[in-house]
Amino acid sequence: MAKVPITVYLTPAELAQIEGRAEVMGKSRSAWVSDTLLRALGNELQPYDEVHLEQLCKVRAGQEVLLEALAERDRNRIAQWRDRVFRHAERLLQEARERIGR
Hints:
Strand content: under 5%
Low-confidence stretches: none
Order of helices and strands: HHHH
Radius of gyration: 20 Å
Helix content: over 70%
Distance between the termini: 34 Å
Structural class: mainly alpha
Shape: elongated
């Protein structure tokens, strides 16, 4: 099926955000916008999203195993360790969002 172009009107700031995100993904802004729209329409995960999801699940599982191992040594501190891990994860997420301009 042939693709049909569309016109989208954006503010300069919005265009700059798109350009930044496209650059992070190594795509042209048109390719990034197209991928984003198709994902929104299909409500599907792109292959790289599935890879990220799989890796996040593995990291989370590893984290839980480590916390359980630590808990065997000191059950009273497991809640403290979990809170510390989650605070650290939030900080890392915020840093990542700042790098990609979100």
